[in-house]
Design goal:
197 residues; five-stranded mixed β-sheet; alpha+beta; 55% helix
Amino acid sequence: MIKYLCRNWSILALIILSGIVVSNNVNSQETNQKFGSNAPTMTFLYCYSCGYRKAFEEYEHILLEKYPDIQIKGANYEPSGLNMYLSKVLVIAKYLLMALIGSSFDLFGFFGIAQPVFWTWALENKLFAIMMTFFFGNMLEAQLVSSGAFEISLNDIPIWSKLATGRIPSPQELFSIIESHLQFTDNFLEKNPEFVK
């Protein structure tokens, strides 16, 4: 019995830790490190769950093509408030529930409560119940952290906000904003002479 319990708790711990690692990898910052610290730094904060990562990668490619010396950073825009905390709690609860189902742990018997029909069904249909828990949990997490943000700053000064304007800037607009912003600073960006508009 102890061997069975230790094996199931180790599986539970492994699932929880993998969930935390996956959650942190999604929110980790991606940085283009090939330039020195003297170059202007452009930071993109985007809504990962809205699919704006692809837009960030396209803008990164376009900007590095026109301004080879610029440093570009991108990260998930984490919404403030209760939604972010609820999503983190939901991640842990989701993996814990999946581990309980997968290990056939009698959760309700542990607390001395009669086992409900849905739990009996989940234990009899483990694979389906675990998949349903995973996908339903992911859907709820995505809804909680979905902000619709695509925020751009240059040298820590905000230059564009999708939350304020309701849209993502066109590349030409972004080039114009960058050039007008940098003409009043000491940073000098050399344009790529072979860049095609």
